[in-house]
C-alpha cells in the first residue's frame, strides 16, 4: 500500500503521477508553487504574463513527467521548465511589443515613511531588472533573489556554470549603474540644489 501523498518525496510524487495517481502532481505543485511563481513574476515583470507562463510550464511538466530522468532534483527540473516558459514568453513579447498595464495589486500603500521608501526601492529594483537582457535577469533572479547555487541555476537554465557567472556579473554591473542613486540618495537632491542655484 502506497503511503499518503504528503509523505512522499518529490521524486515519489512524480513517479506516482506517472503511474496514474490523480492527485500526485497537484501535491507537487502545492509544495513548490510559491517559489515557481516568484521566479515567473520576477523574470517576466508582470503578474498576468507570469501567470500565463507558469500555467504553460506546469502543463508542460504535467505532460512530460514521464521523460524526467532523475539526474537533477525535481525542483531543478520544474524551475527549468518555468524559466524556459518565461524566456519564451518574453522573447515573443519582444518580437511584438505591447504597452503593459501597471501591475498593481490594489492594496493601499502603507502609511509609515520607511515602508513607502522600501516600496519605492522595490519598484526601482523591479524596473531595473526589467531593463536587463532576459538571460541576465533570469540568472540574477535564480542566484541573487532566490538563492539557488550557481550550479543549480546553470542546470535550470540549461547553460554552463561559467555562463551563469558571466550573466550574473554583467547583470550586477548594469544594476549598479541603474540603481546608483539608491546608494547615495542625497546625490539627486544635491544635483537639484545645484541646478536650482544656477537658474
Automatic annotation (TrEMBL):
Residues covered by the RNA polymerase sigma-70 region domain: 28-95
Family statement: Belongs to the sigma-70 factor family. ECF subfamily.
Pfam families: Sigma70_r2, Sigma70_r4_2
Domain named RNA polymerase sigma factor 70 region 4 type: residues: 124-175
Record's protein name: RNA polymerase sigma factor SigM
Key word Transcription present: yes
Gene encoding the protein: sigM
Record-linked NCBIfam families: PRK09643.1, sigma70-ECF
Classification via PANTHER family: ECF RNA POLYMERASE SIGMA FACTOR SIGM, RNA POLYMERASE ECF-TYPE SIGMA FACTO
Entries under InterPro entries matching the protein: RNA_pol_sigma-70-like, RNA_pol_sigma-70_dom, RNA_pol_sigma70_r2, RNA_pol_sigma70_r4_t2, RNA_pol_sigma_r2, RNA_pol_sigma_r3/r4-like, WH-like_DNA-bd_sf
Keywords: DNA-binding, Sigma factor, Transcription, Transcription regulation
Amino acid at each position: 500500500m502506497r503511503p499518503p501523498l504528503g509523505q512522499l518525496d518529490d521524486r515519489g510524487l512524480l513517479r506516482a503521477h506517472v503511474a496514474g495517481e490523480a492527485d500526485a502532481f497537484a501535491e507537487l505543485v502545492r509544495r513548490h508553487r510559491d517559489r515557481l511563481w516568484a521566479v515567473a513574476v520576477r523574470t517576466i515583470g508582470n503578474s498576468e504574463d507570469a501567470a500565463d507562463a507558469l500555467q504553460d510550464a506546469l502543463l508542460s511538466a504535467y505532460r512530460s513527467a514521464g521523460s524526467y530522468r532523475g539526474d537533477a532534483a525535481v525542483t531543478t527540473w520544474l524551475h527549468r521548465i518555468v524559466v524556459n516558459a518565461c524566456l519564451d514568453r518574453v522573447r515573443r513579447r519582444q518580437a511584438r511589443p505591447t504597452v503593459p498595464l501597471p501591475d498593481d495589486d490594489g492594496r493601499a500603500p502603507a502609511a509609515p515613511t520607511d515602508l513607502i521608501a522600501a516600496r519605492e526601492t522595490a519598484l526601482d529594483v523591479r524596473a531595473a531588472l526589467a531593463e536587463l537582457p532576459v538571460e541576465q535577469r533570469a540568472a540574477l533572479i535564480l542566484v541573487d533573489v532566490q538563492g539557488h547555487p550557481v550550479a543549480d541555476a546553470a542546470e535550470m537554465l540549461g547553460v554552463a556554470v561559467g555562463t551563469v557567472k558571466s550573466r550574473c556579473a554583467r547583470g550586477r554591473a548594469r544594476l549598479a549603474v541603474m540603481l546608483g542613486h539608491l546608494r547615495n540618495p542625497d546625490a539627486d537632491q544635491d544635483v537639484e540644489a545645484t541646478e536650482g542655484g544656477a537658474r
